[in-house]
């Protein structure tokens, strides 16, 4: 099929590459000329396992192309995806200006029936607004062209996006017309073998499904972080509690890992946006507010532990940091807990020596050259000359470290484990003091 995708961010690029991989002719449109040029050369602006290979392969074979020219791209697509950003505006609502601008552009150039698919995470009711924006432009041209607008939210996880896209566990299609559903059924047929993963519903339910999924996952994390905070006060070990409750299939083992708070471009933004949506419809979503508040507090946790350890005297101290990205297998620093920690340490006069397998460049882009930040090439380099070690991201490479080496390198043998990667007993046997999240030693 012929597919057009507006936006070459995470969602657009991964969706475009995966659709091309299945043999569709895909054109990706972006207003950023430099980015489009880089993509044409096969350079991927983000770190995402497996993405570069399928982008290059399909670009070379002619199935995947990039352009800044919207008009021919709109003429190309039977299915036109909108996958541009919806950043939060000042009050936390999703800012729809980019989505609606693309809808207007489509309306100005559409010359025959097409299915317009909202892939961006957008507030409930956006499909209607996109439909109105397209229709207004068509009316201005007196063009009697039919189109459908479908809500088809994505459920990609950064770091596993290609796999999630090629092997989705559900394909949510919010559409009111049988014609549009038939087009999407055909497009998604190669992703939908063995058993039917397509769940067809109305547009508003599809839009809410996306927010509900992320809000539920964020709720599980904040819930566990709250239990961790209770655990350390009552002298319990949250890791045992986690295993104890996870065995109930109604609760499950997934997404109940306590830690230094959730980050990324989705959870913080989507929980806030859903809260705003509820508010604007006259409902106060108290649970969502609490999920967010617990997370905000949890992101200060590592700093509090470190500061407490040094009796608040951090000036002149050097903290080794393992992990900068908001989670493993990405270089994404958006809302990363490491940022909160570094900024608090700097404000208190401490220095940071940090290592991350992928996010060093991005960290440098964000913070530039500064005396109180050294970005190290190896995990062991970050320890040299540091007082203590804090682990902020749960990269696999940090799971089985050489504790004796850590002890020898640090001025004070202490590990602050922001992701509960280690067993306190193992660390303590190696001669290091251990602070985790919800595991005994507390403030
Ligand atoms: C999230 C959802 O998991 C995807 O399903 C969704 O498609 C995506 O948002 C989106 O809306 O685009 P992502 O932001 O890539 O994906 O990250 P997650 O893997 O969900 O992790 C989010 C954060 O939660 C990370 O900071 C992670 O360290 C933290 N986390 C995760 C915990 O603290 N505990 C857990 O048990 C799990």
Automatic annotation (TrEMBL):
Indicate whether DNA repair appears among the record's keywords. no
Pathway assignment reads:
Nucleotide-sugar biosynthesis; UDP-alpha-D-glucuronate biosynthesis; UDP-alpha-D-glucuronate from UDP-alpha-D-glucose: step 1/1
> UDP-glucose/GDP-mannose dehydrogenase C-terminal domain spans which residues?
320-424
Native organism is Rhodanobacter terrae
Q: Which Gene3D superfamilies match?
A: Cytochrome c1, transmembrane anchor, C-terminal, NAD(P)-binding Rossmann-like Domain
Q: What GO molecular functions are on record for this protein? A: oxidoreductase activity
* E.C. number: 1.1.1.22
Q: What is this protein called?
A: UDP-glucose 6-dehydrogenase
Which Pfam family is one of this chain's hits? UDPG_MGDP_dh
